[in-house]
Amino acid sequence: MTPHPPKASYFKRKVVHPLTKLLTMGITPQKLAITGSLGVVIGILPLFGLTSFYAP
Q1: Cα 49 versus chain centre, distance
Q2: In which region does residue 19 sit, left (phi positive, over 0), alpha (psi from -120 to 50) or beta (all else)?
Q3: E strands along 1-56, which residues?
Q4: Can you tell me the distance from the alpha carbon of 15 to that of 1, in angstroms, rounded to the nearest whole number?
Q5: 3-56, pLDDT tens digit by residue?
Q6: What does each C-alpha distance from 3 to 6, 7, 29 come to in angstroms?
Q7: Nearest-angstrom CA–CA distance, 25 and 13
Q8: What's the pTM?
Q9: Do residues 55 and 47 make contact, with C-beta atoms less than 8 angstroms apart?
Q10: Dist. CA 42–CA 16, nearest whole Å
Q11: How confident is the model at residue 1 (pLDDT cuts 50, 70, 90)?
């Protein structure tokens, strides 16, 4: 029996490998950084709106 290769860590499987694939497909690091930062900002902003809406 041949031994199985070690399984990649969760971080590598979910973060590093997809980002590496995007970079090899031709997206520039600048576009990747802008996309990631916009995703974080858009994902967090609704939380601030809800907390101020419910504040007495």
Answers
A1: 23
A2: alpha
A3: none
A4: 31
A5: 777 788 999 999 899 999 999 999 999 999 999 998 887 777 766 666 666 655
A6: 9, 12, 36
A7: 17
A8: 0.58
A9: no
A10: 22
A11: low
